Amino acid sequence: MANRTVKDARSIHGTNPQYLVEKIIRTRIYESKYWKEECFGLTAELVVDKAMELKFIGGVYGGNIKPTPFLCLILKMLQIQPEKDIVVEFIRNEDFKYVRLLGAIYMRLTGTSIDCFKYLEPLYNDYRKIKRQKADGEFDILHVDEFIDELLHEERACDIILPRIQKRHVLEETEQLEQRVSALDEDLDEVESSSEEEELEEPRKPDPTPLPDQERRRYRDLDRPRRTPSPRFRRSKSPVRRRSRSPKRRSPSPRRERYRSKSPRRHRSRSRSRERRHRSKSPGYHRSHRHRSHSRSPDRFKRKNKRSHKGE
């Protein structure tokens, strides 16, 4: 009897309100400790007190599929089916964010498409942080506006399959809803108007950022020392006396050819001067030369033999 829907409850989307939660999850909620101890005999007024004690949102978690207190209170509201004015007060409550989220998800499950957009879209301006328990039992942080966006655009929230609603642009075309005005539009209009006034008042200044060629030239000038170019450099850079770069190699001039040709006499004198410098630099040259001078060479033996033959 405690798990039955109230007698005067009306059907939602053509079915019992509690059937919006899947049977397996619904059975786990009925068997949970929180449902038996905290949710027994609750009325629409007492649900508010239980919602104020919530610390996080979520669906089921763990290997044995345990429901969170937030999910248990959702099923309790589907069971007792509070009036629409009470649900709207839940949504407009700014002091307790989890009470607001409880009313928002109940409105998404039971309300029409127009009611969902009408009462849930103003919650996009709520940026408070909330805690959510995931399926593995861990917690993560998100914001109220993110959860509202999931309710309006996702197919599942807190392990509950959400009923389908019409798209907003369809309701706007049929004039059932007015075009949504974001709270950021006013700020954007102010920024644009202020920028236009500044452009009209102050003339546009040239862009101080240099071109790539100018930037490259500036760095090159800073790296190289500042000096006047040599006459040769100046002559090569002048546009009038620019030399043509032909792929063919020019033949050397006769003057250069004359200086390149080396006479044997000049070559011999250069080799002798190099040998003299080498003798003066090497410290052991005199000893080796003296030793070689006193050593008996075959020419010396020949000269001695000739003298001996002449004496005989």
UniProtKB/TrEMBL annotation:
Belongs to the PRP38 family. Its main location: nucleus. It holds the Pfam family PRP38. InterPro entries: PRP38. It is found in: Nucleus. This is Pre-mRNA-splicing factor 38B. May be required for pre-mRNA splicing. Residues 202-226 have a biased composition (Basic and acidic residues). One of its GO terms (cellular component) is spliceosomal complex. Keywords: mRNA processing, mRNA splicing, Nucleus, Spliceosome. GO terms for biological process: mRNA splicing, via spliceosome. Residues 184-312 are annotated as: Disordered. Residues 227-312 have a biased composition (Basic residues). The keyword Membrane does not apply. The keyword Nucleus applies. Residues 184-201 have a biased composition (Acidic residues).
